Amino acid sequence: MERGSFDLRLLGYFFRTAQVGNITRAAGELNVAQPTLSKALKLLEAQVGTPLLERHAHGITLTPIGQRLAEHAGVVMAQVRDAADEIAQLREGQGGQVTIGAGPSWVRRKLPEAISRISVQRPDVRVEVQTGFDISLLDALTSGALDFVVAERPLEGESANLEFRFLTTDDLVCVARPEHPLAGRENVEAEEALGLVWALPPETTLARRKLDGRVISLGLTPPVANVVSASPTFLLTHATLTDCLIYTTRSQLLSPEGSRLVQIDVPKLVTNREAGIIFRKPGLLTPAARAVADVLIEECQVDPFN
């Protein structure tokens, strides 16, 4: 075997072991004997030329190189599964299964319309939609659990193995109920808004990171959230019941929960959000997934706001 190349079977063994964190348990899931798996891992380490994991009484710990190889292995395994699914669909003429990850705004707009059209045009295609915030969705995409994701464009440096197809744009703005003390005022200063009560998504989400980044760029201190939730529906509903500020897209004001809220005019805290379809490189999709993506692209060309 040439230097720098890996045995795909060994790579698959290593990836599953890295996921499980225990050689004995991984061997059981892979249906191989533990000594066989241990030998396979040592063979892969020999091919790589460096240790990939450290063995201890309670399992294994990946070395820094092992961690990086596991990330690449996840992409490779996902691509192999994609290839198998596509070939099966082409060979057997089946509609196939499509699993999509969707950010909060897409669950309410664009994606439901696209899937409704697909269900009529292609009743042989089965679609599953998983929702969540960007980080969890991108992790699932990279691991192969999702065919593609519709969400905000990942930040630079966080999408090395991903491709992005632009679909819509929107702004992230401050939102509150009409009774909020800032409602109806124009050009509210950021300092005043930041000193009030906030309810925000977790710090790992792009919306929260964009807000914090904008605040820091102004030389100010990011707000401390009194309430933190990964559920956009909860945050929107919570904001209708109390005088707190939330940070979300304008399109959320079109949702049933957001319809009872208003934008608070704090110009210095407004940030832009581009969103679209996120694929694993090199952007290959099964025929069924491509059909759904194409209809979604058509929906967004009519109204590129979400």
Description:
The chain has helices at residues 8-20, 23-30, 34-48, 64-92, 104-108, 111-121, 134-143, 190-194, 206-217, 232-241, 287-302, and strands spanning 53-56, 59-62, 97-102, 126-131, 148-152, 162-176, 199-200, 227-228, 246-249, 262-264, 271-280. Strands 3, 4, 5, 6, 9, 10 and 11 form a seven-stranded mixed beta sheet that branches. Strands 1-2 form a two-stranded antiparallel ribbon. Strands 7-8 form a two-stranded parallel sheet. Helix 9 links the parallel strand 7 (199-200) and strand 8 (227-228). It has three domains: 1-93, Orthogonal Bundle (Arc Repressor Mutant, subunit A), CATH 1.10.10; 94-168 and 274-302, 3-Layer(aba) Sandwich (D-Maltodextrin-Binding Protein, domain 2); 169-273, D-Maltodextrin-Binding Protein, domain 2, CATH 3.40.190.290. By secondary structure, the chain is α/β, with parallel strands linked by helices. The model has no long low-confidence stretch (mean pLDDT 89). Helix content is 44%, strand content 20%.
CATH topology of the largest domain: D-Maltodextrin-Binding Protein, domain 2
Q: The biggest beta sheet, please?
A: 7 strands, mixed
Helix content: 40-55%
Question: Class of the largest domain in CATH?
Answer: Alpha Beta
pLDDT < 50 stretches: none
Structural class: alpha/beta
Radius of gyration (CA) equals 23 Å
Oligomer kind: single chain
Question: What integer is the average pLDDT?
Answer: 89
- CATH architectural label of the largest domain: 3-Layer(aba) Sandwich
Number of helices: 11
Helix/strand order: HHHEEHEHHEHEEHEHEHEEEH
Number of strands: 11
User: How many structural domains does the protein architecture include?
Assistant: 3
| Proportion of strand residues | 15-25%
What is the distance, rounded to the nearest whole angstrom, between the alpha carbons of the first and last residues? Answer: 50 Å
- Overall 3D form: globular
